[in-house]
Specification:
By secondary structure, the protein is of the alpha/beta class. Helices cover 30% and strands 24% of the residues. It is globular. The structure holds 5-O-phosphono-beta-D-ribofuranosylamine.
Length: 216
Amino acid sequence: MKRGRPASLAVLLSGTGTTLQNLIDKIAAGELPVKIAVVVSSRPDAYGVVRAHKAGIPVEVINRKDFEDPMEHAEAVKARLAKHDIDLIVLAGYNHIVALEKSRQVPAINIHPALIPAFSGKGFYGDRVHKAVLEYGVRFTGVTVHFVDDEYDHGPVILQETVEVRDDDTVETLRSRVQQVEHRLYPTAIKLFAEGRLKVEGRRVKIMPRRRKQQS
Ligand code: GRF
């Protein structure tokens, strides 16, 4: 992170952008001291693009359909991101693999609507996750925020919180309660990152205590 300016984020999305909207709202309310430098969408028609435009955030569309090979698309996204001065890549309903810098200078984080490693990995996204949770019959699901590595839903876990599954839950009711938790947990994790309080040790992420303000 660079001194003297708020942490700079790139938000990657493929869909409706409710996750992006929540971050925009939290920043506007003064609850999240970061800046969204750019939004990258893998679809030109994603509603998240409209939300970014409304908030005056620059948008780059890199259409997944323009690439046969997923890695070629990921490399194109990486090349475009390199043009921006970014501290953190935030996946927000982004359905594709990301090509990370080998040096890992810019970390990426993701939010998953279940308790990783359950109901996660390739093919587990959106309502498919909640449907699988209900079909399996587990009593608890939840939300996971994690660092991204080269596998789907796999990097070190930053924060997790449980959500109870009720007997009368449908995909819609469960999604709604899970999203309420997501909208609290993602800004919390991003803030911890921006404050330099996340220390990765192997697969474990330590949350460091808040630094005391220097006495003058
Ligand atoms: C969220 O439920 C999140 O867990 C997943 O994408 C969903 C939101 O999509 N990664 P969007 O932000 O509304 O496009």
